[in-house]
Amino acid sequence: MLASVFCATSLDGFIARADGGLDWLPADGEPHGYEEFIATIDAIVMGRNTFETVLTFGEWAFAKPVVVLTSTPQRFKAPAGADCQFMGGTPLEVIARLSERGFRHLYVDGGITVQRFLAARLIQRLTITRIPVVLGSGIPLFGAVDGDILFEHVATRSYASGLVQSEYRVAGGGVLR
Amino acid sequence: MLASVFCATSLDGFIARADGGLDWLPADGEPHGYEEFIATIDAIVMGRNTFETVLTFGEWAFAKPVVVLTSTPQRFKAPAGADCQFMGGTPLEVIARLSERGFRHLYVDGGITVQRFLAARLIQRLTITRIPVVLGSGIPLFGAVDGDILFEHVATRSYASGLVQSEYRVAGGGVLR
């Protein structure tokens, strides 16, 4: 199993404003490799907060199965027409369960969820697209970890709009058992 | 007057460990444009914390005048042989005073000092070199600001060692009165 993070952050490392707001993201439609990335994954794993933000967007826009992590999975049901399920457990348990189902590459998304998987050292690929703005506060991509996590730089691309996208893989390989 | 930030951060935005430790910075001697940058500045402005960290390095390694910001400048004296002075005041007062002395380009360094100058919207250039490591905690480059600060991407360079350096200028120009 591979688990990847693919996200945009402000220069100061926020993925959203404190209220979840994404108004600071560019709306110009310039492609930044999201479609290509989604084509490589088997499922999207996100936290309940991100799920609820996504619901406010109206239409369900995910081309792959979505797994929503929550400590109370029985309280939720999938939006109409969505391939979406709810799951509790630690990151390792979630990965083990999804691995049994034949998933090989997970897209881990959302602040707390990314932080939990990183802290559990279960992220192998990191693609961060930096938006040239300092927000000063918000929901951070990174949180506390138990010891340094070393990455190797794979590639960096810059875009006409000022976005800079860097791709990393965890040092020492990192395909999960 | 121009004021620039030129610094290295971890992927999660720290410029040092909580105790000031810089052991996670690469020690390979690969040049990352520091000498070229220093050649363009007239003085280095740093906080008292950074000054005290610098003192532990032993030799005074600055090729340009150093201005140390502290609320108690009278308590300090310059290390032997160092072009170093101590100054109180707000970022705007400091810039006005240094401008009167004929300085035209300041290098603003150190966590709290960078944050104060950014919050006062007195930084025009930002060069951030990202080290491919997640530390989880430490002294952050960025702090709270009163409203978004927009930047324009100037250039990004990646290095064999995995470092990625991005250069930004504040949107809308920004040469100080």
Beta-strand residue percentage of chain A: 25-35%
Please identify which CATH superfamily of the domain at 32-125 in chain A we are dealing with.
Dihydrofolate Reductase, subunit A
Mean pLDDT of chain A: 93
Query: What is the largest interface, and how many residues per chain?
Result: A-B, 38 and 38 residues
Which class of secondary structure composition applies to the elements of chain A? alpha/beta
**Number of distinct beta strands of chain A:** 11
CATH topological fold name of the domain at 32-125 in chain A: Dihydrofolate Reductase, subunit A
The biggest sheet of chain A amounts to: 8 strands, mixed
Poorly predicted parts of chain A: none
The whole-angstrom Rg of chain A is 16 Å
How many distinct helices of chain A? 4
Portion in helices of chain A: 10-25%
Shape of chain A: globular
Strand order of the largest sheet of chain A: 5-4-3-6-1-7-11-10
- CATH class category label of the domain at 32-125 in chain A: Alpha Beta
Subunit organisation of the chains: homodimer
**CATH architecture verdict of the domain at 32-125 in chain A:** 3-Layer(aba) Sandwich
Q: H/E element string of chain A?
A: EEHEHEEHEHEEEEE
Distance between the amino and carboxyl termini of chain A = 7 Å
Labels describing this entry:
4 helices; 8-stranded mixed sheet; Dihydrofolate Reductase, subunit A; two-stranded antiparallel sheet; alpha/beta; 177 residues; homodimer
